[in-house]
């Protein structure tokens, strides 16, 4: 059976990555209406027909949402391709779609449930490849577990593991592991990030774009313009800086980086203490018995210039600062 499909330019790029011998993880991420879910379902159908007896995963955070959205897209595509009960059957109870040639698509709930923190429910799963829709709604661990289960009949068809994922812009692990690394040209060779825009889809209704234009500013940036930096404009601290706080410093080189911490006491009975840190070691300590605000600021500035420390690497305990404006001497 032969299927002829006219893919968009971005979808063609995704297909090329899914057909090469290097890429194992492809993220198609960006605005709503970019044809991401359509492409994921179409890719599964093509694979099922091309490779008889193979087994594929269609996953999302919650099975209910999967059936109400992605699965309906799948059925719509099948209808347009004139695929019917002679070509596949859908067992709602088992959550499986079985094709005439023995290929199967398994519907999977990938939510992190407290009762199954290690995703043991996926432990015995063996698949040939997978499509995770709205992958930003699941944990990175869930994605990794699915990827680890891709091994079924790969050698038989001379395939390598392939995981296709779609999402709208989100400030979580997909941002950190795909968008940001791609932007900085640090994305691993086995990964690919393909930005999607609604304007990339020639089949989208103009009314859909009109509706997206009516959204609030942040939602419009995400879902219409496909912007990943959608909420940093008015932020006190940008997202990348917040993420840096939680990085595992056992795996990050921070040589030649210094930090300042200051516990302000001013004219109280406690001392003002200013510390300069390198990693978790104190390399310089200053104590001030009675201190004025401008004296503390002056000392911090001297240390800042001495060690080339930027402002976001300085933390000050403001409790006890009180009013400023005193003058020394």
Structure report:
- The protein has 329 residues and is an alpha/beta fold.
- It has 2 domains: 9-223, Rossmann fold, CATH 3.40.50; 258-317.
- 30% of the residues lie in helices and 20% in strands.
- The chain is built from 10 helices and 12 strands.
- The protein has an 8-stranded mixed beta sheet, sandwiched between helices. The chain has a 4-stranded mixed beta sheet with strand order 11-10-9-12, covered by helices on one side.
- A hairpin with a 4-residue loop joins strand 3 (88-91) and strand 4 (96-99).
- Helix 2 (36-50) crosses helix 4 (70-80).
- It is elongated.
- It starts with 8 loop residues before the first helix and ends in a 12-residue tail after the last strand.
What is the structure about, briefly put?
With 329 residues, this protein is of the alpha/beta class. The chain is built from 10 helices and 12 strands. Helix 2 (36-50) packs across helix 4.
Q: How do the helices and strands line up, and which of them pair or pack?
A:
Blueprint: H1 9-19, E1 25-30, H2 36-50, E2 55-60, H3 63-68, H4 70-80, E3 88-91, E4 96-99, E5 104-109, E6 129-132, H5 140-148, E7 163-167, H6 173-183, E8 191-196, H7 206-212, H8 217-223, H9 239-245, E9 258-263, E10 272-278, E11 281-288, H10 293-307, E12 314-317
Parallel strand pairs: 1-7, 1-8, 2-5, 2-6, 6-7, 9-12
Antiparallel strand pairs: 3-4, 4-5, 9-10, 10-11
Helix pairs in contact: 2-4
């Amino acid at each position: 059976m032969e299927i002829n499909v006219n893919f968009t330019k971005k979808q063609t790029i995704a297909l090329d990555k899914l057909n090469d011998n290097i890429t194992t993880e492809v993220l198609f991420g960006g605005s709503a209406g970019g044809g991401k879910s359509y492409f994921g379902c179409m890719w599964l159908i093509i694979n099922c027909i091309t490779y008889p007896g193979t087994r594929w995963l269609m996953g999302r955070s919650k099975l209910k949402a999967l059936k109400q959205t992605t699965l309906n897209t799948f059925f719509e595509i099948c209808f347009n391709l004139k695929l019917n009960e002679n070509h596949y059957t859908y067992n709602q109870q088992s959550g499986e779609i079985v094709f005439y040639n023995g290929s199967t698509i398994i519907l999977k709930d990938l939510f992190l449930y407290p009762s199954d923190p290690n995703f043991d429910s996926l432990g015995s799963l063996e698949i040939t490849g997978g499509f995770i829709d709205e992958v930003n709604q699941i944990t990175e661990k869930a994605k990794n577990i699915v990827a680890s289960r891709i091994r079924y009949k790969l050698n038989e068809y001379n395939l390598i593991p392939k995981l296709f994922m779609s999402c709208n812009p989100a400030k979580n692990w997909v941002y950190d592991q795909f968008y940001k690394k791609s932007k900085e040209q640090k994305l691993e060779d086995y990964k690919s990030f393909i930005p999607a825009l609604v304007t990339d889809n020639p089949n989208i209704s103009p009314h859909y774009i009109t509706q997206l234009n009516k959204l609030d500013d942040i939602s419009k940036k995400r879902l219409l313009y496909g912007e990943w930096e959608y909420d940093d404009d008015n932020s006190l601290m940008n997202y990348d800086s917040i993420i840096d706080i939680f990085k595992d410093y056992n795996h990050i080189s921070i040589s030649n980086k210094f930090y300042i911490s200051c516990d302000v006491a001013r004219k109280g009975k406690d001392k003002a203490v200013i510390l300069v840190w390198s990693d978790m070691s104190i390399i310089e300590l200053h104590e001030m018995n009675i201190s004025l605000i401008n004296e503390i600021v002056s000392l911090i500035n001297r240390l800042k210039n001495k060690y080339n420390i930027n402002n976001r690497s300085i933390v000050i305990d403001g409790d006890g600062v009180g009013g400023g404006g005193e003058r020394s001497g």
